Each structure stands twice: as C-alpha cells, then as structure tokens.
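Good morning N.,

You mentioned wanting to compare the apo and holo forms, so I went ahead and generated the holo version with iron/sulfur cluster. This is what I fed in:
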Amino acid sequence: MVSGMRPSGALHLGHYHGVLKNWLALQQETDCLFFAADWHALTTHYENPGQTGELTLEMVIDWLAVGIDPEQATIFVQSHVPEHAELHLLLSMITPLGWLERVPTYKDQQEKLKERDLATYGFLGYPVLQGADILIYHGSRVPVGEDQVAHVELTREIARRFNHLFGREPDLAERVSAILKNLDPQAGADYHRLRQCHQEQGDAEALATARRWIDEYPGLSTPDRDRLRAHLEGGARQILTEPAALLTRSARLPGMDGQKMSKSYGNTIALREPLDQVAQKLRTMPTDPARVRRTDPGEPTRCPVWALHQVYSDAETQAWVQEGCRSAGIGCVECKKPLMEAVTAELEPIQARARELSADRGQVEAILAAGSDKARALAGETMHEVRRVMGLRSR
Ligand code: TRP
Ligand code: SF4
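and this is what came out, ligand included:
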C-alpha cells in the first residue's frame, strides 16, 4: 500500500476525516508506505520553494500526532529516496506524450492555477513521477481520492507498457523447459496440455486450472512463477506490478460554510488550531438562514451545522437535532454544544502529541531517516531489476 501527500503545511480536520483516518485503518491491516511528496509540491510551487522543507516537517508532525505509527508503517520524504527520480526518468523514456496531455488534471490545474506558469516539463510529468512512486514499491493498492484515479490508471498503463517492452525474454521457451524439467514429469505434461487447451481452443477452465497450478506448485521461485505465467498466457513477465486504485469513500468533511473543507475556501479547522479559536469558529458558524428567531423552526438539511453532526454525533444526538430543530424545541447555540464537545475531545489528544513532537524535532527527523533507509532498500531492489531489463550496465 503506497500513498503520498503533498506538503501543504498544517493539516486540518478535512485531511483527518478524508485521508488520515483511512491511513490509520490501513496501517493496521497491511504493509504501508506513507511519504511526503515534496517533489510533487515543487511541480506547482517551484517559484517559492523556500518553505517546502518546513511544510514537510509540519505535515509529518500532524501525521504522527493523529497516530500514524512508524512501527507499523514506513514514513519518509520522497526526495530522500532519489531512486524515485531515477525510475521517473526511465519511465519517461517510454511514456507517450499523448497519454500525459490527456490526463484531466493537466488541463484542469493549468486552468485553476492561472497565475502560475505550469507549461513546464516537470508539471506535464507529474503523473509519471507519481507512477514511479507507486511502481518502485510494487504498490498493489493506492488509496486516493477521486481526483487521483486518473493518475493511478496512467500508472497501470505505464506498467503494462514497461512489462510489454522489457518483460519479454528471448529465451523464455528454453527457460520454461528447464523449469519444468526439475518438476515431477507428470506435472510438466499436465501443464503443457492445459496450456495447449487454453491457447488453441480458448479453454477458460484450462487457463484457470493452469494459473492455479502455477500459483500453488510448491518450491517455485517468484521469477520462475512469473516466467510460467508469461509463457502460459503468451504475454510478458510482470516486472512492474499494476496497481489498483483504492477509492476512499472520503468522508467529505464540510467546512464552516457547508462547502467541502479546504484551505482555498478559508473554511477550515486546523488540527493544531487553539481550542478557544475552534470554539469561536463553531459559535459563529452559519445555520439555516431561514431560522432567524429562536422561535422559528429550522431545517437541518439546509444547515452546515447538521452536516457536521452527521460526522460527529451518534444516532441519538442526531435524532435530538432533527426533532429539536424542526420543532424549534432547541436553539442553535444549544445544538452546537455537543459538536463543540466532540471536536474538542477529538483535537485535545492530537494537539498534546503534536506539542511533544514539535518540541523534539530530532525525534521526527530520526523517524524520517529510518523510514527513508527502509524505503531505499526496497526501491533499490526494484531499480536493480529495472536497470537490468532495460539493458543498463550494473555497477
Ligand atoms: N498526487 C497526489 C495528490 O496530490 C500525491 C501523490 C504523489 C501520491 N505520489 C503519490 C498519492 C503516490 C498516491 C501515490 O494527492
Ligand atoms: Fe442548524 Fe442546529 Fe440551528 Fe437547526 S438547530 S438550524 S440544525 S444549528
């Protein structure tokens, strides 16, 4: 599982509910790599790079404060693993320009960020770099929001093209014969029969059986299994693994104005925002505009406060809000109270942990150093194989 986040400085509750909670669940389930995509930040913010390092550290402090755990996940900074850049370069050799020009975010972002000149080589290559981030770790799952799905799809296409170009071994048939010779002779005969049924008669059952046989036959090495699969299906060996996007049902946290919480709308609550300021923001948060006086009944579905209740409150509180609002039984100040309590309770431990980490930046640096060592070891293995199949001389 691989995922990156561009360093944008202090994170807010939208990041927490939309992305980080999902990371927290994933780190318990599977091997995760989480990294700060500082090079990606430079593709759009190359003119004022002075802050990138600082923003990276602040973002990582927030990750750790919410519970992203260096014991469970590998946490690092993209630019500390230069192998990403090498793979990006090599993938750029085989990525058709048209594929990049067609990625929706390319034109969209240029439109959105009109004040910046994004007609650069680096920005066009943004998804290739993202592809390298994923493929270098054989990432099979990439949890992303909707806006990133096209990038993961492109990553799949690049992997497929790479495998097609470099996964074909001229001596595959001989190698397969050598592999089969070492197995039980009956197994070899069965394999040939199944392959023939698949290739000559399109027998799907035979294909499924042969695949299972390859996956399960004891004692085969991974490259040999890959070779058998390539031979069976008449394709190429999987050198780079095609990832699947893991679309996160992002709990779209509404901001103070009811729109999606986002820094560009100025409607956020930062994870490290002083709690009195948080209370102030909630107190002044707009409610159903039709509810002018305390005695006017309101309609929760027209109220951004209700949107927050749906994230923070249990069924009982939600029923209390709906009933009380529609009957004018409760006032808006009262309605916001459980919300304030829930948000405060959520933020308090995060802020305590963030204070500790900010006071001991050496600890954060050490976590990142250990993470990049781990990531580099993994990335190095992939690069070794990539250089080899691309015909580069190894050192
Ligand atoms: N482009 C992603 C974003 O803006 C960040 C990112 C960079 C990423 N590399 C990645 C996400 C690899 C997942 C996997 O959100
Ligand atoms: Fe919104 Fe609650 Fe006021 Fe109803 S009572 S308008 S839901 S803040």
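The pocket of tryptophan (ligand 1) is lined by residues 2-6, 37, 40, 130, 133-134, 142, 144, 148 (CB under 6 Å).

Happy to go through it together on a call whenever suits you.

Best,
F.
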